[in-house]
């Protein structure tokens, strides 16, 4: 871990929000050390469940929240993305989701789309 707090984005599609809340509950020690940015509804759920986390809730994903996180990536203000996508439903804002994940790859940020991948990501961030 480097000196300043890790900047982590937490995002989940509706069908995966419960999974993200559960996952976060298993990583509170690490997440309490992070500056978290989240899309609107995801951020509201996380704040309700874990009031001690430092969460900035942006706009809801379909209303531009994914693009706001993309902008943070482009400005080198993000260290990792945990984005539990719903792989079984079409999304009206699929292009925004794609743009966000594309930028994560462009900037070579760690990106996890599922709980076990997120476990590995957090372990890697904490242990360098
Ligand atoms: O749609 C999302 C990501 O694409 C998530 O947005 P919400 O957290 O506002 O539901």
Describe the 3D structure.
This protein has 128 residues and is an alpha/beta fold. The protein has one domain (7-127): Methylglyoxal synthase-like domain (Rossmann fold), CATH 3.40.50.1380. Helices cover 46% and strands 16% of the residues. The chain has 6 helices and 5 strands; from the N terminus they run E-H-H-E-H-E-H-E-H-E-H. Strands 3-2-1-4-5 form a 5-stranded parallel sheet, sandwiched between helices. Strand 4, helix 5 and strand 5 form a beta-alpha-beta unit. The longest helix is centred in the last third of the chain and has 13 residues, at 94-106. It is globular. The termini are close together. The mean pLDDT is 96. The protein binds 1,3-dihydroxyacetonephosphate. 1,3-dihydroxyacetonephosphate (13P) binds at residues 11, 13, 39-42, 60-62, 65-66, 93, 97.
Features:
binds 1,3-dihydroxyacetonephosphate; five-stranded parallel beta sheet; 128 residues; 16% strand; alpha/beta; 46% helix; single chain
Helix content: 40-55%
The main β sheet shows up as: 5 strands, parallel
* CATH superfamily label: Methylglyoxal synthase-like domain
Radius of gyration: 13 Å
Identify the CATH architecture: 3-Layer(aba) Sandwich
How many structural units, i.e. domains? 1
- Would you identify the regions where 5 or more consecutive residues have pLDDT less than 50? none
Inertia-based shape: globular
CATH class, named Alpha Beta
The helix-and-strand class reads: alpha/beta
Number of distinct helices: 6
Beta fraction: 15-25%
Q: What is bound: which ligands?
A: 1,3-dihydroxyacetonephosphate
CATH topology: Rossmann fold
Q: Span between N and C termini?
A: 6 Å
Strands ordered across the widest β-sheet: 3-2-1-4-5
Give, in order, the helices and strands.
EHHEHEHEHEH
Secondary structure: number of strands: 5
Mean pLDDT: 96
């Amino acid at each position: 871990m480097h000196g300043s707090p890790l900047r982590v984005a937490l995002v989940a599609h509706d069908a995966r929000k419960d999974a993200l809340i559960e996952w976060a509950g298993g990583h509170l020690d690490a997440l309490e050390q992070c500056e978290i940015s989240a899309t609107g509804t995801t951020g509201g759920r996380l704040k309700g469940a874990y009031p001690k986390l430092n969460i900035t809730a942006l706009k809801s994903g379909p209303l531009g929240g994914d693009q706001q996180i993309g902008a943070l990536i482009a400005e080198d203000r993000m260290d990792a993305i945990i984005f539990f996508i719903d792989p079984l439903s079409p999304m009206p804002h699929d292009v925004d989701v794609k743009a966000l994940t594309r930028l994560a790859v462009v900037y070579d940020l760690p990106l996890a789309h599922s709980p076990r991948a997120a476990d590995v990501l957090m372990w890697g961030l904490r242990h360098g």
